[in-house]
Amino acid sequence: MPEAAADLLVTVLGSGTCVPSRERSSCALLAETAGRRFLLDAGPGTLRRLAEAGFALDDLTAVLFSHLHPDHTGDLAALLFAMKYDPGTRRATPLTLVGGQGFADFYARLKGAYGDWIDPGAGRLRIREVAVDGPDVLDSAGIEIRTAPTAHTPQSVAYRLQSPSGRSCVYSGDTDWAASLVQLAERADLLVCEAAFPEGQKVAGHLTPALAGQIAARAQVRRLMLTHFYPACEAADIAAQCRQTWSGPLLLARDLMRIPVE
User: Fold this and answer.
1) Which of 29, 83, 97, 115 is least buried, going by the fewest C-beta atoms within 10 A?
2) Which one-letter DSSP state was computed for residue 94?
C-alpha cells in the first residue's frame, strides 16, 4: 500500500466517461489525508485501477458519490460483492457510502436486484445522505467534507475535502455552470473539474474547458485539473481552450496520475 508523502494526495483512478477506452476508466478519484482514504465516484474499472494504484478495499474510509449515473456508480455492486466474499477483506470499521438525498433508496433498489450478494453483513456498511437543495457538511473519520448541489441531475453534488492542515481539494462531479460550485471551490488548493466536451460541442449538464476555467478563476483556486473527457476531447487542444479563461496552473487528468495537494 503506497504511503502518502503529502498532507493531501489525490490519485486519478478514472478520467473518462461511459464510452469504453483503453486509456481511461470511468470517473473515479482517490483522496488521501491523515491516514484516511476517500474514493470519489466508482465508475466501471475503478476497482482494477484501485488495485493498480496499490490499494485494497480495506484501505477505503468512505466512498462519496457525486450522482447516480452508471459511469459514476458502476463498480459499487462489485465493490460490495467483494467486501462480502473476498477472503482478503477484513475491515475493522464500517465502510461509509455517501450520496445526495435519494442515495439510500438507490442502494435499496440495487440490493433488490442483487439481493444479499451485495450486503456485506451487519455493521460493515454505513449510508449517509447529504442535502441536494443547498450546501451541507459532514464529518467522516475526523475529516470535514463539505458539499454543494450541482447542475446535472436532482441528486448531483460536489465535494470539498479538507486536510487537518487546511489543504483542500474540490471534486465537481458532473455539472453544468453552477454558482454553488464556485462558492464551494473558493480558494481551494486543487479543483478537479469535469470538462466533458470541447468548445463548440457543449452538451447540457456538462462543462467545456473554458467554462471549467471560468469557474476556477471566479473561485480563485490555486490549481485546476480537468477530467471526465469524452472521446471528442482527445482530438481537441483542451489546454488551449481552458486558457481562454484560466491562466493558473493547469493539469489534464490521466488514469493513475498522483497529485500532491500543496
Assistant:
1) 115
2) P
d(CA 88, CA 47): 14
Hey, what amino acid is at 102? Answer: G
Residue 8 and residue 167 in contact, taking contact as beta carbons nearer than 8 Å: yes
Residue 132 lies in a domain: yes
Range of the domain at 42: 8-260
SS3 of 51, please?
helix
Contact status, residue 184 vs residue 151, Cβ threshold 8 Å: no
> Total structural domains in the chain?
1
35 in a structural domain: yes
Mean pLDDT over the full length of the chain: 95
Q: What is the CATH number of the domain that holds 128?
A: 3.60.15.10
Q: For the whole prediction, is pTM greater than 0.90?
A: yes
The tens digit of pLDDT for each residue in 73-109 reads 999 999 999 999 988 888 889 999 999 999 999 999 9
At which residue does the C-alpha cell 447529504 appear?
Answer: 130
- Asked whether residue 2 is assigned to any structural domain, the reply reads no
Q: Quickly count: other Cβ atoms within 10 Å of residue 20's Cβ.
A: 12
CB 153 within 8 A of CB 178: no
DSSP one-letter string for 52-68: HTT--GGG-SEEE-S--
Q: Report the largest interatomic distance among the alpha carbons of the chain, rounded to a whole angstrom.
A: 52
Question: What residues have CB less than 8 Å from 46, skipping those under 6 apart?
Answer: 13, 14, 25, 26, 28, 39, 74, 75, 79
The answer to whether position 1 is within a domain reads no
Inter-helix orientation angle 76-85/103-114, to 10° = 60
Mind listing the pLDDT tens digit for each residue in 118-147? 999 888 999 999 999 999 999 998 899 999
Residue 1 burial class via C-beta count within 10 angstroms: exposed 0-12, middle 13-18, buried 19 and up:
exposed
Tell the residue number behind the cell numbers 503506497, with chain if given. 2
Nearest to residue 216, comparing CAs of 161, 160, 170?
170
